[in-house]
Amino acid sequence: MFDDFFTRAVIGGIGVAVIAGPLGCFIIWRKMAYFGDTLSHSALLGVALGLILELNITLAVFIVSSVVALLLVLLQRRANLSSDALLGLLAHSALAIGLVVLAFMTWVRVDLMGFLFGDILSISTFDVALIWGGGLFVLTVLAKIWHPLFAATVSYELATAEGIKSDRINVIFMILMAAVIAMSLKIVGVLLITALLIIPAASARTFAKSPEHMATIAIVIGSAAVCFGLIGSLEFDTPAGPSIVVAALLCFVLSLFRSLNPFRTK
Amino acid sequence: MLVSLKNAGIFRSKKWLVRGVSMTVEAGEIVTLIGPNGSGKSTTAKLALGVLSADEGHASRKDGLCVSYVPQKIQLSPHLPLSVTRFLRLTFRPDRKAINFALKATGTDHLADEQMASLSGGEFQRVLLARAILSSPELLVLDEPVQGVDFNGELELYKLIEDIRNQLNCGILLISHDLHVVMSTTDRVICLNGHVCCSGTPATVVSSNEFKSLFGHRASSGLAIYEHRHDHKHHLDGSVVGDGTNANNTHTPSKSEVVSKNARTPISSGPINHKAIIHSKVNSDV
Fold first, then answer.
1. A205 interface with B at CB cutoff 8 Å
2. Measured between beta carbons, which residues in chain A are less than 8 angstroms from residue B90?
């Protein structure tokens, strides 16, 4: 069944949705959407590095995103520059540098559009295995740090004061985010990764009664968006990655109707 | 001793937020930090908690100290689905009975299933306090715990704080603006303005000139039993006029130290509890 490119795309896409859901919730709760954007834009640098050093692209992106994430944490702690100015500056600089470096590498033929917007229909069985293997690992780690991470998300100071190692937990969370970005690169591309992270989570908010509930719903919505996006792209001959994001957006719009309903009990 | 700060200071953005702060909190003792806005009360509390590490001096806590903290502010994302009951279980796992007790004690039992985001300011504070008392802490750090709570509720909650201290024999570090309530429930008051201006039993602090210059004469009327002069004035940021640092300034007693009969006897006894501490040297000029 893995012979069919469409089946591989669906299974790989759902794999990414399963990890993007819970992590996306934390990104929203921590108001880190822009942070995620900066990280994913820097993924193109990872692509360039992977091509130069002939490394596995996913691995190279993971390493570069992790380094950028840790640098950002340090910078935010030291610099007086406001967070969103700093992130805005870095997000687009990282993207531009990535594009420039790729342009210099005249000896490799690069499918730039594939990296920018994803190329889910061309993922291999190995990519699917990588997504599910890595995804399981990410989810296991996330489950282990869930409670302290959640406490540090509600209040860093409260959690730290009451004995939670918030700084260490935050660093682990950053590395998980870098892993998700590396795995999503092939699915939706650097420009749309943040959308896959935050749109399902934002759509889940109106239905959720608890944080865990919200994460679960985000997984369901993300998976639905992957399926509908892929079917739509097949039907209307549209690019697959952007179609997935559009499908996710439709889910979000539908969830708005629910939150606007004046007869809703709660 | 639960917590002790020795000459501790925090340096941020090219200035000292607080400097030269020395204090301790003992078991069974309520210590209150007072001072104007921006005087470093919250910073001092975070130093004591270990949320901030001292850039100068030392902060030490008893090994394995069980702490509960009510921060001055928690900003929750509106996207965070968090019920009151879930919030109470944020950093540890209390049983149902303990949760019900804490909710009742703080008058919030009707809010158990509400979302945190839908609470009013006063309700939110009560829930914060409920969570803090749940874990039977050894040290309770309360940063303006009753802000936004209605007048009757305020008195009730202060009574509750005192009850908790009596029941658990825990140390309490309190930051508060309600001077009258503070003066009646506290064992020791520390008056901050970038540095420790004066400290001691409520009665001695209230009657000090330093306190009067920070809070106005009306704040201390009726309790003026002790006077001292200090040889420095403060800038608005708390630094000392003509000095440049916040350290090494003097508060000079103008008469011999008289501790009022009204002064409350501290629960736990330590040599520093029983009289006002006038920091640094004592001059003889009257």
1. yes
2. 150-151, 154, 158-159
In a domain, A10, yes or no: yes
Per-residue pLDDT at B140: 92
Nearest to A178 by CA among A88, A63, A56: A63
Q: Does A207 touch chain B (CB under 8 A)?
A: no
Of B71, B82, B135, nearest to A158 by CB-CB distance is B71
* Strand boundaries in chain B, DSSP class E: 3-12, 15-25, 30-34, 56-61, 67-70, 139-143, 171-175, 188-192, 196-200, 228-230, 251-253
Domain extent, residue A66, equals: 5-190
pLDDT value at residue B231 = 53
Structural domain boundaries, residue B37: 3-66+136-253
Q: Which of A80, A163, A211 sits opposite B80 (nearest CB)?
A: A211
CB A12 within 8 A of CB A131: yes
The alpha-carbon radius of gyration of chain B (Å, integer) is 19
CB B29, CB B267: distance < 8 Å:
yes
Per-residue confidence at A221, pLDDT binned at 50, 70, 90?
A: very high
Which span out of A46-55, A137-146, B76-85, B192-201 was modeled with the highest average pLDDT? A137-146
Instruction: List the CATH number of the domain containing B217.
Output: 3.40.50.300
Q: What is the pLDDT of residues B156-174, one digit of tens each?
A: 888 888 888 888 889 999 9
Least CB–CB distance from B51: residue in A153, A154, A161: A161
User: Within an 8 Å CB–CB cutoff, is residue A31 touching chain B?
Assistant: yes
ipTM above threshold 0.90: no
pTM of the model: 0.81
CATH number, domain of A146, equals 1.10.3470.10
Number of domain units in chain A: 1
Phi–psi pair at A22, nearest 5 degrees: -65, -40
Residue A149 lies in a domain: yes
For residue A191, the distance in angstroms to the closest alpha carbon of chain B comes to: 24
Measure A145 CA to nearest chain B CA, in Å: 12
Percent of chain A with pLDDT over 70: 95
